[in-house]
Structure formats: structure tokens, C-alpha cells
Amino acid sequence: MLSKRNPQLNKNGELIHLLSIEGLPRAVVSHILDTASTFLSVNDREVKKVPLLRGKSLFNLFFENSTRTRTTFEIAAKRLSADVINLDIAKSSASKGESLLDTIANLSAMQADMFVVRHSESGAPYLIAQHCAPHVHVVNAGDGRHAHPTQGLLDMYTIRHFKKDFTQLSVAIVGDIVHSRVARSDIHALTTLGVPDIRAVGPKTLVPGDLAQMGVRVCHNMEEGIRGADVIIMLRLQNERMSGGMLPSAGEYFKSYGLTPEKLALAKPDCIVMHPGPINRGVEIDSAVADGSHSVILPQVTFGIAVRMAVMSIIAGNEA
Amino acid sequence: MLSKRNPQLNKNGELIHLLSIEGLPRAVVSHILDTASTFLSVNDREVKKVPLLRGKSLFNLFFENSTRTRTTFEIAAKRLSADVINLDIAKSSASKGESLLDTIANLSAMQADMFVVRHSESGAPYLIAQHCAPHVHVVNAGDGRHAHPTQGLLDMYTIRHFKKDFTQLSVAIVGDIVHSRVARSDIHALTTLGVPDIRAVGPKTLVPGDLAQMGVRVCHNMEEGIRGADVIIMLRLQNERMSGGMLPSAGEYFKSYGLTPEKLALAKPDCIVMHPGPINRGVEIDSAVADGSHSVILPQVTFGIAVRMAVMSIIAGNEA
Amino acid sequence: MLSKRNPQLNKNGELIHLLSIEGLPRAVVSHILDTASTFLSVNDREVKKVPLLRGKSLFNLFFENSTRTRTTFEIAAKRLSADVINLDIAKSSASKGESLLDTIANLSAMQADMFVVRHSESGAPYLIAQHCAPHVHVVNAGDGRHAHPTQGLLDMYTIRHFKKDFTQLSVAIVGDIVHSRVARSDIHALTTLGVPDIRAVGPKTLVPGDLAQMGVRVCHNMEEGIRGADVIIMLRLQNERMSGGMLPSAGEYFKSYGLTPEKLALAKPDCIVMHPGPINRGVEIDSAVADGSHSVILPQVTFGIAVRMAVMSIIAGNEA
């Protein structure tokens, strides 16, 4: 049974936590995207609120700091009328030597309804989902190098919005694949949704060789990697990669793997360019591309709110 | 007249601030616990909100940092539909050299309705209650070594929930009594509610000799202190006590005063074990006890939300 | 056309951003003050909320830290039923090397409705207003030395409340005029509202000579500057001015420019004393004056909430 293998689903196969896109049935992913579509219209209304989570308490537990991602969850939750509690968790109990599971047990006892968790350790949201009270739902907002499922889902929403059909697409993911939880979540989602041609593009130090077994084509040459692509997903280059000796310099990287109008011309004429943000102009992407007509980077942000509203409202409606 | 001696009560003897349990009439304490009982059911409802404080502005003024306690007040206030303003007060006006009373006067002028105050100086909430505008209510969320009245009240709620009648109980408070505002608040509350046998248990360096005049029996021997107890309240051992030379080591402390299953066997068979959290496993309490069937540590957290809702709704309803 | 020269107004001359008082027509300023008057009564009600901004998302973008000012905007927005998102912007994207305009574009894409911006660079709110999406409204909460328009407006509200008619008044602004965005905003507002006698009082190092062209009389002598004044606006002396060699010492400054009861006796008998806070007792103002019967410093704070509610509700109701 699926529910035994996947802690995200209850015994009816319904989503109760969102921990990873890996292992989610295509129907569940599609249901999230369909629901997000209805919320997108809420965000266009004069009063951008629906009462779906009224009286629910959502805790933002960001063990790893990320103001931007926390903000998107906070907005999404408030538009669902939830009460949002932001915990500055790094300053808090952790510093008093309390264990992660004791912290979680305590917050559960405050009758929390949902934890949105970001953590530098891969798997932390799983541990929390396994140990929290049955009435609590967990959303993974990024764990180590493992997964960033709401980013993966908003990327899928974006692709579906602009391309409609997944089953004919070529998608290139470019950059620091090895350290990227976004890339991992995107690859799982694209595979689940039936994308036939997924390419991982970047230097050998940043693109793992074992991606082939995930059905991904590895390209160390940028021009080859994006040729004929319908979708290009650029990844953010972390500065620490360059100081860590894995890369020569930002300038060298940009020359080989930065997305310029010239390189973009190799892709399909109606190719869309995505990026999880924040972008490094002149490092992984040229300003002319970031601000150009192929870029859908800002629509990704807008869709991200609706996708997070969809995830939260779906899991809150299902019982463990 | 009571109101002259106790700034917490108005001239009708009604609660307008909660500063300390000391001096509160038993009827007021019981009224808080009865009210909390009604809120506990609110917290179990699908929509956990009541509109009692709608449109009221509650300011969390934590001059001393405590994410956990602040969070419990924030949740309680939001469930009462209040607007909650968290002031990072340490970073704020204080650093501009403004006096405490000028800060308070300014916040009062913003038409605050309630201040929840934590301060490292004993008595700071009294000072604030004396000087703030008459429409503002003050709740002490812990001041120096003096008092932590909502913790005391939630401890009483917990005891009443599990033991019903206070007048037949033996209650042992174990640990660092001398530095503990929780212990002081608990002792006042237990006395007010008619508990006949209160014991303060710990090493001589941590248990003051003058407790006898408060009607408390001092025990420097743990086994003697908890024998036959109905309730054991374990206190958190602050790490700084050990580095400060007041104690030999965590291991030595645990050997003498840590609550293990073996020691717990000396108490009544239906004894409950409490702790204000966060717990130090293996320092003041063994994991087998913290997670065992006698432990009511997590119910304390749940009751704490209801008790804080009760305190806030009661004082907001009474005029100075 | 006004709208071409003033980015704060739409083509109908309606307020869509509040960036500066400079260039605002007197009718717009009066409309804000009249609207604030209606909100003042909201703040006295049992339920201090109106649903004018329900479902709107307001972002507090404080690139320069100011807990007090942020709090006043947060309270004002919550009383209008808006959802408030506080961004700890210094810790956030800026540290990831993202540009101001990319941050703003991203937040706009989250379907923000309003940005309240404080920034150490003069003009930053203008830049944001020029580049954000058309549905977003911008309020300047203080930019560099340039402007602090809501402070200016609440000062005008205060003067109008106590003095009724602007056209007969003598107003003295005392202190560090050169570094003060409050002084600049006050001077523009007083001029717009027809105050015939505006005086800038302070030492030569702190009072610019070119104020004369703004229709302001410069006085380096305090006694002369406040003689016969109806209104005295004291400015806060920043500590860094004294360490920077621009002033001898706090004691010397107080002797020359501190407002004492003796100096105040030179003003009109019904003179009001204002200060934007936080006050430095014994530096720019004597405690006897700050706490005395002429002081309207705390009413300024109360009026400030109503004025901010007025500004936000007016701009949110007008389309770009």
C-alpha cells in the first residue's frame, strides 16, 4: 500500500503532509495544480481572502533563515484566514539545548494545525511529520539538499500555464544541480507529469553523474543542453560554490553557463525561462534575458502564492 | 481595602492586571481556572477563535527574550481575535536611550489595550501597571526572580484537572527554587488554594532557608522530599548555575535530584509529574519519566493557552 | 499637469502614493487631516477595527530599522483590517546580493497592495513607486534626510487640533534642522497650509543657511527664535552629532537650545510643545516641559495612528 511507503498520504491516498514530490501520485500533483488555479483568481479579487483556514494556527518553523520563502507562506496562509505564528527558531529553544522533537511536541501541544518547516538537514520535515501529533500537518519549505516541493509544484504550475501539455516537452535545468533541492524536486515532478526529455546542464563539478538513472540526460555543454528546449530552468549559483574551489570565477561561469540572448536563441522560439530567485544578474543569467519576453520569473512568484494556498488547504482538509 | 494594597484589583475587587499570584483572593484564582476550562473546549473546535478581544491591540513587550512564552501569549490572543504586535523591544527604543516609562507612555498613546511584559528586573510589570494609561491592562509574563503568574495558574489548572481537590494534596517542588519565579508563583497559588503540604526540595545552595515562613517544608534530600507526593513539579536547571560554582556538575546533580523511575516510585502511585519546560533530559529529569505515564508536561502546555486566554479576557472586561 | 510633475497623484489629482509633502496640493493635505479625524473616533471605540483594507496585504519594508515607526504603521493597518507582513529586510534578500528593484518586483508579484518603506537613502521610496506594479501603493516612512511625510502630517493634525487656524500662527522648529527629515516635511506642510511665520532655530552647524528661500526665518538664538511662538516643535538630537564634532556637548547644547520652563515662558501663554520622539530628557527638552501642561507629545502619537490610517485608506482607494 502506498500509505505505508509514503508518510505524506493517509490510508485513502489523500495528502496529509507535503514533504517531497518524490512518490506523489500524478493525480495528487494534478489536484494541487487544479486547486491552485482556483486560488489564483482569489488573489485577483478586491478582497483576497477566503475563510478556509479560519481559526487554524500555522507555525512557520524556519530553522534555516529565508525571509522570502517564509513571506510567501505567510501571505498564502493569511489569504486563507489562518493565524500565522513566525518563530525565530534559531534564537529560541534550540539555544536552550532542547531537542528538535521536544520543541515539536511542545508546539503541537499548543494545538498547532500546521508546521511549515525549513531546515538545513535533509529529512528533518519527515522526522517532524513522524513524531508530531496526528492533528498537525507538515509542509516542507526546503530541507538540506533534499527537496523543496512547493517550489517544484509552482514550477510545474508555471510550465502548465504556459505550455499546457507536459507530454511533448523538452526541459533543461541549468546550473548547480548537485546542491539544489529545487532541481531534485523539479526532476521528480517533471517525471511524474510525463515530461519525456529532461536535461541537466552544468559543469562536471555541479552536475552529478548518477542523474541518468533518474531518466535525466546530463549535458556539460550549455549550447547542447538548451538546444530546442521548451523550458529552461536556471538555478541560482550560491556564492560559496565559487569560493569553495568548485568553480573558477563568476565571469568564467557566466561565459560557459550564463544564459544570454545568444544562447537562448538556440532554444525553441517560444521557450520560457524560469528561475527560483533571487537571481544573480551577470552570473547565471543576463539582465536582457531576466527582463526579456521569454522570462516568466515574476509569474512564478505569483503562482507560488496560489500553489502554497492550494497545498495548505488540501492537507488541512484531510485527516491522518 | 484590598484595592489599595493590590494594584491588580479595581475597587470592586475585580482583576484588572495580572502581576503576581501573591495577594490574589482564592475566588479570583478559581474564576480564572473556571474560565480557562471553557476556553479549553474552544481550542478543540474546528474554528478555534472567539471574538472576545476583537479590535483590541495586545503588545508583547519582551525586554527579556523568550520565544516560547511569547508564542503562547500570541496564540492565546489571536484565538481571542485580538491584534497582536510583537515588539523587539531590546533592539528598539531602549537602544535610543529612552526610559522604560517613556516607552510605555508612547505605546499607551497608540491606544494599546494590553501589555504582556517580560523583564529581567523584578517589579518592572508593577511599575508599568502603575504608570500606564487607565485603559491599559498589564500581564506579567515573568519578572526577574519574582513571579511568573500565568505559569503558576496553568500549573494549578493542571493539578486541578488531574487531582480535583487541592485540600488533600502533597506537592513537591524540586530543583533550583531560589532562582525560580515559577516556584514562587506556584507556592503562592498552592497556598491560596489550600494545599496543606508543600515541599521545596533541592540542595542547600538552591533552596532558601526562609521558605519555612511561607508554610513550605524544606527538604535537602530528594527521596524524603518526594515520598508520598501527589504532585511533583520539577524545575528547569539553568546551565549557568553549574558554571557559577553553585553546583558540582550535571551528572552529580542528576544523581541527587534528577527524577528517575526509581525515585518516582517513592511518590504516590497516581502521582503526576510536571515541568515548566524546556526540559533538560538527563539533568533534572530522566527521559523515561518525562515521556512516561505519570508525566503531564505536554498537557500543561495545552492548558497554558487556555489559562492565558482566560486571564486576558477577564482583565480586558474589567475597568480600572 | 500636476500628475506629470508629481508621481504621488494620478491623472485626476488623487493621492496614490505618499512620498513627500512637497508638491501636495493643500486640498489633498486637508482631505488627509479630515479623514484622520473620522478615524480618531474609531480608535476610541470598543472594537477599533474598520474593514476598509480587508484582504489587502501591506508590507513593512524597513531597510533602516525603526521599531516604533513600524509599529505605528502595523497598528494603523491592522485597525483597517489589512494583513501586515513585516519583512526583516536587512537580513533578507539584500544580503543575497539582490538589487532593491528586484526585491520590489518580487514582492509586487506576491500581489502586495501597499509598501511602507523606510530607507537610509533619500529618494528610495520614489524609485520604488516608479518601478513597482501599478496596483501597488507606496508610503514613505522616512527616507534619508529627505522626508518623513506621515510625521509631517500628524504634526499638522496636532497643530490643527489645538490651534484650529493655520493662517495666524508662529511656529518655531528647534534643533538639528539640517539632518532632519521631520523638519523638512514640517516646513513644506506648514507652508502649504498657509502658516505665515515659520522659524528654524538652532546652532549654525545644524541650521542650513538656505532655508530663507523656503520662506523660513533662521534664528541662531533660542530666546529670539521662540519668542511669541504659538507652536514649538523640538527635534531629537542624534547622539552621533555630538561625537561627530558638530556640537560641543549635551550639556552645552541644552544650555543654549534645550527647552526649559524659563525659555518656554517667552512663547505665547497657550503655546503647545511638540516632539517626534523619542525624547532625550535633559538634552533637547527639560522633563518639566516634556511632562508639563504645554506638552502635546503623547497626543501626537495618538493622532499619528489616525493619520496613518487616513493615508493608507485614501491611497488604497485611488487607482494609478
TrEMBL record, chains A, B, C:
Keyword Transferase in annotation: yes
GO molecular function annotations of the record: aspartate carbamoyltransferase activity
Reactions catalysed, as given in the entry: carbamoyl phosphate + L-aspartate = N-carbamoyl-L-aspartate + phosphate + H(+)
Keywords: Pyrimidine biosynthesis, Transferase
InterPro entries in alphabetical order: Asp/Orn_carbamoyltranf_P-bd, Asp/Orn_carbamoylTrfase, Asp/Orn_carbamoylTrfase_sf, Asp_carbamoyltransf, Asp_carbamoyltransf_Asp/Orn-bd
Enzyme class: transferase
Superkingdom per UniProt: Bacteria
Aspartate/ornithine carbamoyltransferase carbamoyl-P binding domain boundaries: 17-160
Binding residues for carbamoyl phosphate: 68-69, 118, 148, 151, 277-278
HAMAP family hit by this protein: Asp_carb_tr
Family (UniProt): Belongs to the aspartate/ornithine carbamoyltransferase superfamily. ATCase family.
Subunit structure and binding partners: Heterododecamer (2C3:3R2) of six catalytic PyrB chains organized as two trimers (C3), and six regulatory PyrI chains organized as three dimers (R2).
PANTHER family xrefs: ASPARTATE CARBAMOYLTRANSFERASE (PTHR45753:SF6), ORNITHINE CARBAMOYLTRANSFERASE, MITOCHONDRIAL (PTHR45753)
Protein name listed in UniProt: Aspartate carbamoyltransferase
Protein's organism: Pseudaquabacterium rugosum
